[in-house]
Amino acid sequence: MASSFRALLLIALVAVAITPLAAQFANVAIIETYGQEKLSPERLSRLAGLRVGDPLPPNKTDIEQKIESSDDVIRAHVEGHCCHDDGIVLYLGVLEAGTRPFALHSPPAEDLQLPVKLELVHQRLLRALETAHDRGVTAEDLTKGYPLSAHPDARRVQETLVLLVDPFVEELGVLLRRAADEQVRSAAVYMLAYSSNRRAAEAHLQYALRDFHPDVRRNALRTLDLIRRVPGSGPNAVTEISSTWLMEMLHSVTWADRLEAARLLERLTAARPEGLLTTLEERCLTPLGQMATWKTPEHAAAAYILLGRIAAIPEDDIRVSFRDNNRSLVLDAIRKRAQEKRRFLFF
């Protein structure tokens, strides 16, 4: 099996279906933007040399380089998502000059591998997950705070991880910081879900949220979401997930970082914690507002709900207005709050 497919099995991002911009015989159906404060969405589209209805370019790097030709842009990121009316939703993201970047760790450089016991189990798990995938068995039980496959062979291997991981938690943390191979780091992140030492696991996962490789970051987001589901007690329990780096990810130039961070923050604010919502209002109104205006509902929903909670709008009203495509209810309330508090918005 190709290594990229094995990594995908471990990441298991069921909710995100991203289509690479490679040899796609489709047109651009929608152009969405994010990250801009100086450049208008129209200007970004012109820099990219794209309009709705154009054929999808074969190489996303060419589009990014065109956008980066502007003196106002430090870095651009292009992502395609399938499908809308048989076309592609194209996301154009930018890091503009003078804006705060989402800072990533430098790529690690050491030739480190998983501990032998964990590597043996890891290889068994990959084979079992491959078999499960080939047979169409993709369901998982997540109620215990770690993945348990519906396929019996894969599930048995995952249950073995529950018994094995705890003595290796700190070594997995070292791999996250020093292993050059991003697949080793992704596997380490995945295995941390099976540790009973949730406090140590959470600390390592917070570090992994700024990994140089996007697959590691996405895996870390998913594992953080898993370990928060089963609150425990005692010195090794996690009663609350730190949201600091999740909020920073809302400023990432990478589309999936923003989307998955918003989704996790939406789950973390279900009880409307005042402190977290206040901090989100202070730091994240523009990125949330840009996301909340995206035309693809499943990509806009989390940000829209977060803004509604910041504006203290009742939950039912938020969800009904979103369902009925009456997004002005929340967006106008946010704009009014920002004006009253003299905050600048760029959406």
Can you give me a brief rundown of this structure?
The protein has 347 residues and is of the alpha+beta class. The chain has 16 helices and six strands.
Explain the overall architecture.
The protein is α+β, with helices and mostly antiparallel strands. It folds into three domains: about 80 residues, Roll (Ubiquitin-like (UB roll)), CATH 3.10.20.310; about 120 residues, no CATH class; about 70 residues, no CATH class. The protein is built from 16 helices and six strands. The protein has a four-stranded mixed sheet. It has a two-stranded antiparallel sheet with strand order 5-6. Helix 6 packs parallel to helix 8 and helix 14 crosses helix 16. The longest helix has 19 residues. It is globular and about 55 Å long. The N terminus is likely disordered.
Write the layout of secondary structure elements.
Blueprint (H helix, E strand, L loop, with lengths): L2 H9 L6 E2 L8 E7 L6 H8 L11 H9 L4 E12 L2 E10 L19 H19 L5 E2 L6 E2 L2 H13 L4 H10 L3 H11 L5 H11 L5 H14 L16 H6 L5 H14 L5 H10 L1 H8 L4 H14 L4 H9 L4 H13 L7
Parallel strand pairs: 2-4
Antiparallel strand pairs: 1-3, 3-4, 5-6
Which range does the strand content fall in? 5-15%
Instruction: Give the proportion of residues in helices.
Output: 40-55%
Low-confidence stretches: 1-24
Kindly report the spatial arrangement of strands forming the biggest sheet.
1-3-4-2
In DSSP terms (H or I, runs of 4 or more residues), the helix count works out at 16
The total of beta strands comes to 6
Q: Calculate the terminal CA-CA distance, rounded to whole Å.
A: 44 Å
Alpha-beta content class: alpha+beta
Largest sheet: 4 strands, mixed
The residue-averaged pLDDT reads: 91
Number of self-contained structural domains: 3
Mass-distribution shape: globular
Taken in chain order, the helices and strands follow as HEEHHEEHEEHHHHHHHHHHHH
Rg, Å, rounded: 21 Å
